[in-house]
Write a structure and sequence with these properties.
Elements (H helix, E strand, L loop, with lengths): L9 H7 L2 H17 L10 H36 L3 H5 L3 H13 L4 E4 L11 E5 L2 E8 L8 H14 L3 E6 L5 H7 L4 E4 L1 H13 L10 H7 L25 E5 L9 E5 L8 E3 L2
Parallel strand pairs: 3-4, 4-5
Antiparallel strand pairs: 1-2, 2-3, 6-7, 7-8
Helix pairs in contact: 1-3, 2-3, 3-5, 6-7
Length: 278
């Protein structure tokens, strides 16, 4: 999908905020204006102009809180309906993106849906949180596997956007060349089975679910992403023991441990923290 337009209104930005936050803002400004009545003067006088501006902004906050609340309710209903892969594949491309965004939102990320109104590829979601910027592309394909071309393109976009990682979420599967290309890079391939399990895990842990904090969750999730140990989800990657950054699976190319797999810090070579694979 296309990126969000630069001419988005400030009301659109308010709607992106949690409904309770804009409601508090609106009530706070409303109470302030009740305590400080309208100053004397014409509308063009600065104090009067500011007073009316604050009044208008308070009502805008109430409107944004209402819209944001409806969208939150819609996401909750959609998330609850995603019980299996068949239910997910029955969704529209827009619903599929909303579902994926909600799954990561419940893991503690701030999620921006880039908009654009089409299923033409590109960046669908931007995740910000835990010290990272992550771009996400969603592929609601029922039969066709996601190929290496798409993975390669998203990797290029990740570099251009200076993002920390890219996640591609599909309702189906990936081709072998796509998996091979993702190996050793900051690319995460989430297939249909892994997405279903991710949603189930999030439902079992309401609220914010910190990534890479549960050893049991990490061990379970490792086997869920496209059935390839080298391509894992955020929950599967341990935190670097030196700097706390997410780690990626690597393979030793030389030395006594050549051919063995190990977790290496994603900030390498700035950080050389490693964790052995047991």
């Amino acid at each position: 999908m296309a990126r969000r337009k630069n001419n988005e209104s400030w009301f659109d930005i308010l709607v992106l905020l949690p409904w309770w936050l804009t409601l508090i803002m609106g009530v706070g400004i409303y109470v302030y204006l009740k305590v400080h009545p309208l100053p004397n003067g014409t509308f063009l006088d600065k104090p009067v102009f500011i007073w009316y501006g604050l009044k208008f902004f308070s009502w805008a906050c109430f409107g944004a809180a209402f819209v944001s609340g409806l969208l939150t309710l819609k996401r909750k209903i959609l998330f609850a309906s995603a019980k299996d892969i068949d239910a997910i594949r029955a969704m529209s491309w827009r619903e599929f993106e909303t579902l994926v965004g909600e799954a990561y939102r419940r893991q503690g990320y701030m999620v921006e849906e880039t908009g654009g109104g089409g299923a033409d590829g590109g960046i669908d979601l931007i995740l910000v949180g835990k010290g990272q910027k992550i771009i996400v592309q969603c592929k609601r394909w029922k039969t066709v596997k996601v190929g290496v071309k798409i993975v390669r393109e998203m990797y290029g976009i990740m570099v251009a956007e200076k993002a920390d990682r890219v996640i591609i979420v599909a309702s189906g599967a990936y081709t072998s060349p796509a998996v091979d290309f993702a190996h050793g890079k900051q690319i995460e391939l989430v297939d249909g089975k892994a997405l279903v399990q991710l949603i189930r895990d999030v439902k079992q842990k309401p609220g914010v679910v910190p990534a890479a904090t549960s050893t049991q969750s990490a061990q379970a999730t490792t086997q869920k992403i496209v059935n390839v140990p080298l391509v894992v989800s955020v929950a599967a990657a341990p935190a670097c023991p030196k700097c706390g950054s997410p780690m990626v699976m690597r393979k030793a190319k030389k030395g006594a441990h050549a051919g063995n797999q190990f977790w290496g810090c994603s900030k390498y070579p700035a950080c050389k923290g490693i964790v052995n694979v047991s």
